[in-house]
Every structure is written in structure tokens, then in C-alpha cells.
Amino acid sequence: MSDQRRPRILISRAEDVTGERWADYADRVTAAGGDPVAAALEEWQPGTPLPAADGLILTGGIDIDPAVYGAARSERVAEVNRARDDFELALLRQALDGDVPVLGVCRGHQLMNVAYGGSLLQHIEEREPHRSRRGADGVIESGWHDVALAPGTRLGGILGGGPVRANSRHHQAVTAERVAPGLLVAGTTSDGIVEALEDPTKRWVVSVQWHPERTEMGTASAPLFEAFVRACRGDT
Questions:
Q1: Closest CA to 158 of 86, 59, 230
Q2: pLDDT tens per residue, range 31-56
Q3: Catalytic residue among 20, 88, 195, 213
Q4: Is residue 1 part of a domain?
Q5: Which of 20, 137, 159, 170 gives the lowest tally of CB atoms within 10 Å of its CB?
Q6: pLDDT of the residue at 176
Q7: Does residue 3 sit within a domain?
């Protein structure tokens, strides 16, 4: 297989929270050598074939409906979209069935845990350091914290062992007791939030709670997208 081939990578598109931009993911994929393709909910009907691709990115967005993982909905869950949940679960399951590389980001990280049979903490009470906040000018800003990477994991190898200084914009989370069977914890914070997961039985399935696509991460995220695109090309 030629090293010059640009793999076709589906990126889920919703942009249903402030600051979420599909173009940020697309720019990262393009820079890493892939061709981004939007996978849009409004263009899909349940039961219809999903577009074929060499890789899949599940993006950030609104909360996952707790009913998906069999839980009652907390009053702190403000907005859900069950149609989006079902669409992205269908995308993910098709990718997993075909051993297509997957990268989950923020909501996508949480959705991966749910798809494998795990659940979520529906609200982190403390704003620092995980939840976003408004700056003095009223603009929503990311929180920041370190993520410790587990030795011997794929993600640890990609990012040089860590720790990673990560941006943070989430109020729901995966925690140790909620991790799905079969998933490997690849990154954690000092307060017990699971920030990265992997499926060691698949060719390349990784999720991160932070937002590697955002420009505020600078060049720190380049190795992650480059490794993902290489896997989509079939190099690893």
C-alpha cells in the first residue's frame, strides 16, 4: 500500500455546543495526511447503509442520553439528542465490526465507553479543573490539567509517555468504576477521571476526554492525529 495514499476518514458532525467546530477536526486530519468526510446526522436514516471509510472520528457535543446506558436522567443533564446517540453508535459499531481505526474525542470518548457496556458520571460538581468557564470578556474558556498516561499503552507510546497538559470542557465523565469491560484505561487525572481508553483487541481504537483538535493545544496533538491517520492508511 502506498505511503502517499490519503485515507478517507469519517468525522461525525453536529456542532451542537458553543465552540465545537467540525472544521477543527478536519484541519487536523488534513494536516496529518487524511481526507476528512462529514458524517452528518441529518443525512442518515436508521436502517440505511452507513458510508464506508478508512477511519472514524467521533466528535464532542451535548450529553449522551443516560437511557442509552440504562440510567435515570439527572437534573444536571440539560440537553440530549437520542437520534445523534443512535447515529453515532451505529457508526461506531460498524467501524468496530470492520476493525476500522477509531478516535473518540470528548463526547466520543464517553460514547465509546457506553457502546462497550460502561456508564458515565452524569455531572462533575466541582468546576475546576474539568469544566469550561467564562472568561472576563464573556468568552467560554477551557479548563486545563495534567493527564497521566499508563505505561505500555498505545497512547502512551504515541505521546511519549506523558504527562499530557490537556484542555478540558466536560461536565460528564468516565470514572474507574464505570469503565466498560474490555477497555483499557490509558490516561487518568489526579482526581480519578478516566481521560483515555483503548481497545487492545482492535487494530487501533483510542479515545480521549480532552480536545486535541482545538488550536489551543498547539502542536502537542499532532502525533495523535498522525498515528491515527497512519493506522487508517494501514501502515501500523
A1: 230
A2: 999 999 999 888 877 777 777 899 99
A3: 213
A4: no
A5: 137
A6: 95
A7: no
**Residue 106 a catalytic site member:** yes
Q: Is residue 2 part of a domain?
A: no
Q: What is the DSSP string of 143-191?
A: EEEEEEEPTT-HHHHHTTT--EEEEE--S-BEEGGGPPTTPEEEEE-TT
| Catalytic entry in 130, 145, 170, 211 | 211
Q: Using DSSP bridges, classify how beta strands 35-40 and 102-105 pair: parallel, antiparallel or unpaired.
A: unpaired
Cell numbers 471509510: residue: 53
At 76-108, the pLDDT tens digits run: 898 899 999 999 999 999 999 999 999 999 999
- Domain containing 27 equals 8-233
* CA 167 vs CA 34, 78, 132, 208, 211: distances in Å: 24, 22, 9, 11, 6
What CATH number does the domain containing 103 carry?
3.40.50.880
Q: Which three cell numbers stand for residue 2?
A: 502506498
Kindly report the number of other CB atoms within 10 A of residue 70's CB atom.
9
CA distance 194 to 161: 16
Q: Which of 20, 106, 130, 232 is catalytic?
A: 106
User: What's the Cα-to-Cα distance from 49 to each of 44, 46, 58, rounded to whole Å?
Assistant: 9, 9, 18
Cα-flanking dihedrals φ and ψ of residue 133, to 5°?
A: -150, 165
Distances (CA, A) of 105 to 70, 157, 235: 22, 18, 22
User: 192 in the Ramachandran plot: left (φ > 0), alpha (ψ -120 to 50) or beta?
Assistant: left
Q: How far is CA 228 from CA 64, 109, 154, 223, in A?
A: 25, 15, 11, 8
Task: Reply yes or no on whether 170 is catalytic.
Answer: no
Please indicate whether residue 211 is annotated as part of the active site.
yes
Tell me the pTM: 0.92
* Total number of domains constituting the chain: 1
